[in-house]
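go over this chain:
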Amino acid sequence: MNYRVLCITDRSDLPETELFIGLKNAGVDISVICNPTGKYYERLVRSGITAYDLNLNTRLSLSGIRYLKQHLQKHPYDILYCFNNKAASNVMIATRGMNFKIATYRGTIGNISFTSPASLTTHLHPRVNRIVCVSNAVRDHIVQMNFLWKKVPSDQVVAIYKGHDISWYRQPPADLSEFKLPQNAFVVTFAGRNRPHKGIDYLIDSARYLPSDAPVYFLLLGRLENDKKLRAKIDSSPFKKNIILAGFRNNAPAIFAASDAFIMPSTKREGLSRAVIEAMSSKTVPIVSDIGGLPELVVDNECGFVVPPINAKAIAKAIMKLLKDPDKKYRMAQAARDRIKNDFNIATTVANTQKMFECMIAE
């Protein structure tokens, strides 16, 4: 089946870049419009994919719309795949009066509804043929939405996991000596943005339920150091000397690999956490809350622990299980990596995306 696909994105991350390359290698005639300042832009160009440079910095970019309209009038694409809201909203305006199959990508739960102008000009636009969701949790959320008589047809919404390759995370474990940890330290890592729904407060509160002599150290990665409320909460913790704000790090997977556990205590909106995938690929046992796509990643008590959200005591209990049973921790770490290798790999993502394209063309 012959068809041409144009993907419109911003600074393409590694899984997205490898998806484009995988589709090309699978025989898909694919081109990409993207921001040339992206980290993997050169990798994309070296692969032989035709890349057009465009930075869509707003949802309504007049110059971007003009560029897209002129480009699409010259090139006979069959499918347009929009990877963010800025791409989708500008494409909807630029393609007015044109005939393309259009897919959009959705990576989070929430902030989408039939009463939102932002949603109606992107994912819920009547000309969208497919909404590609990063997890079944995101798909279920969209399919279950309704407003008066409006619903999104279930066959229009598809879940395709964002695939990875464990070879991307085979770097040696990081040297944690800069944090001056004792030799028997049990290191628990968190990485994420400073957002309330990430549940960092519950991670810090979990220390109150640990034995006072437990050699547990929390390593918090991200731009968190300027949060005064967070610092005050840490200062009030009985484990405050064991809670370290490590700042933003470019080598997060290497730090995960040097840790004993990784915690994602989210309270809502998780689509499919890249940080959890990176930790699991690095053979680090994940402890995640039962929110969104997190339980799709982690099989409870097999390759990690799934705990109730907003439950610091449950987090502490999971930490102690790993601390007290090194053999169990080792088995879970192996299983975590195998979980990503077998069920969340880039090859499957490429195959499922190609299958979706073929279904769209057949319709």
User: Anything to note?
Assistant: The chain has a mean pLDDT of 95. The chain has two domains: 4-163+345-362, 167-343.
